[in-house]
Specification:
Elements (H helix, E strand, L loop, with lengths): L4 E6 L2 E3 L4 E3 L1 E5 L2 E6 L5 E6 L4 E4 L1 E6 L15 H10 L2 E9 L6 H12 L6 E2 L2 E3 L5 H13 L4 E5 L9 H14 L2 E5 L3 H13 L7 H5 L2 H18 L3 E3 L5 H12 L4 E5 L2 H4 L26 H13 L4 E2 L19 H5 L14 H11 L5 H15 L17 E11 L18 E11 L2 E5 L2 E2 L18
Parallel strand pairs: 1-6, 2-7, 8-9, 9-10, 9-11, 11-12, 12-13, 13-14, 14-15, 15-16
Antiparallel strand pairs: 1-4, 2-3, 4-5, 7-17, 17-18, 18-19, 19-20
This protein binds dihydropyrimidine-2,4(1H,3H)-dione and zinc ion (2 copies).
Family: Belongs to the metallo-dependent hydrolases superfamily. Hydantoinase/dihydropyrimidinase family.
Keywords: Hydrolase, Metal-binding
Organism: Meridianimarinicoccus marinus
Length: 472
């Protein structure tokens, strides 16, 4: 029967979110058609002996080619960003299509499709960002877009150009409930951050490090609780994205104990970095390499995040890849004349789409903190389930897309900027020692990357999404 397979992956250990087992995989027309002890004969054979065979990584939180309020240009477009993603073991990414205030959400989505078309090395789908919830957006554009397969959107509780008032949040949540969309919330209290920023600046504390004090964990905890309360009032499921530490995480656990439909995501920066990294060498601009929002916290928060990854508080582990340059006037570092005057001008975001999977595997699986099954759940299966891609994506099962990452659990290497494919001119994880690397990324049956190098054409496709399992 399997003589008609295009591809056979032999001899590896298949790992799903639930279990692991030894089997071959047969692929035809880009889909898995056989999982058995022995797949006989295929046009292409891949020997996976000694390797783990995982569902391709799904990075459900990346920013590519997104404009910024001050005109700073992101370091990755769809070409470089998805190249980096594929090299890092991912087969699908979900960037944001951001509405710019005063413009049509639909037009913004069309513009992102144009940016992505023909340029992607992984499959791609878009979350929306709603920044201007006008009656036209709430009444027409957003419902129509959800029905067209853009089934999740993000809202912000901070940033001058993105923040929604509590009244607006409630209105937007209401639309999400009616239309069966999943809301992602950036939970940081805007007024508290502005207050802290002003105080720090008045005291002359303007180095990048003070970003971490301005974006205080208390402000994140408060906003997380407020978002949960709004979600309870409007009876809508939400995802709190990029949860950074113990305090906001406890709010999520509090909500779950009461049966509220609150989901949570965390990211590599909250297990691999601390706020001390923002000090740089001596409170200098090296610290700008670690400026992201929310910022990394302390070692107690890192321990809390590990508890949450183990006990299921976190269902999603995404990169929040938000790449900028460090060098040059457009960069986050000392050559940027505005950033020199205050941390508040340092663009918020760090690259990480290529290093997300190695960091979680190495720090989590190789160090015995989480099982390899949970690794798969956090990085592929749960994102597919929560964002309407399952079981086409995020599964190794008959009929699923043959999106597969071959993983060498014993390979040791060191994260180095010169080996990465992203557009940024640095990595915040420089020098980190890693055990366990993706060695081959297969997208719908075709190898797209091997040993950190992309080797295929940009055949990534846009993926229209169904309703989230959190909503259905
Ligand atoms: N939020 C994100 O999700 N990414 C980067 C910066 C931010 O505030
Ligand atoms: Zn955010
Ligand atoms: Zn983000």
């Amino acid at each position: 029967m399997s003589a008609s397979c295009d591809l056979a992956i032999r001899g590896g250990t298949i790992v799903t979110a639930a279990d692991r087992f030894r089997a071959d995989i047969g692929v035809r027309d880009g889909r898995i058609v056989e999982i058995s002890e022995r797949v006989e004969g295929a046009a292409e054979e891949v020997d996976a002996t000694g390797l783990l065979v995982l569902p391709g990584g799904i990075d459900a939180h990346v920013h590519l080619a997104q404009p910024t309020s001050d005109g700073t240009v992101m370091a990755d477009d769809f070409e470089t960003g998805t190249r980096s993603a594929a090299a890092g073991g991912n087969t699908t990414v979900l960037p944001f299509a951001m509405q710019i205030k005063g413009t049509s959400l639909r037009d913004c989505v069309t513009a992102y499709h144009r940016k992505a078309e023909g340029k992607c090395y992984t499959d791609v789908s878009f979350h929306l960002i709603v920044s201007d919830p006008t009656p036209q957006v709430l009444g027409q554009e957003l419902p129509a877009l959800v029905r067209d397969g853009y089934t999740s959107f993000k809202v912000f509780m901070t940033y001058d150009d993105l923040v929604l008032s509590d009244a607006e949040l409630l209105e937007v949540f209401d639309v999400a409930r009616r239309e069966k969309a999943l809301v992602m919330v950036h939970a940081e209290g805007h007024d508290a951050i502005k207050y802290m920023t002003r105080k720090l600046e008045e005291d002359g504390r303007t180095a990048p490090y003070y970003h971490a004090e301005a974006h205080a964990e208390i402000a994140e905890r408060e906003a997380t609780h407020r978002a949960i309360s709004h979600a309870q009032l409007t009876d809508v499921p939400i995802v709190i994205v990029h949860v950074s530490g113990r305090d906001p995480m406890e709010q999520i656990q509090w909500a779950r104990k009461r049966g509220l439909k609150v989901h949570a995501e965390t990211c590599p920066q909250y297990i691999a970095l601390t706020k001390d990294d923002l000090k740089g060498l001596n409170m200098d601009f090296e610290g700008a390499k670690y400026v992201c929002s929310p910022p990394p916290r302390d070692t107690d928060s890192q321990a809390a995040i590990w508890e949450g990854l183990r006990d299921g508080t976190f269902e999603l582990f995404s990169s929040d890849h938000c790449p900028f340059y460090f060098q040059g006037a457009e960069g986050t570092g000392k050559d940027n004349p505005r950033a020199r005057t205050s941390f508040k001008w340092v663009p918020n975001g760090i690259p990480g789409v290529e290093t997300r999977l190695p960091i979680l595997f190495s720090e989590g699986v190789s160090k015995g903190r989480i099982s390899v099954e949970r690794f798969v759940a956090l990085t592929a299966t749960n994102p597919a389930r929560l964002y309407g891609l399952y079981p086409r994506k995020g599964a190794i099962a008959i009929g699923a897309d043959a999106d597969i990452t071959l993983w060498d659990p014993d390979r040791r290497d060191t994260i180095r900027q010169e080996k990465l494919n992203h557009g940024s001119d640095y990595t915040p994880y420089e020098g980190m020692e890693i055990t366990g690397w993706p060695v081959r990324t297969i997208l719908r049956g075709r190898t797209v990357a091997r040993d950190g190098q992309v080797e295929a054409e940009a055949t990534g496709q846009y993926q229209s999404r169904g309703v989230s399992e959190a909503v259905a």
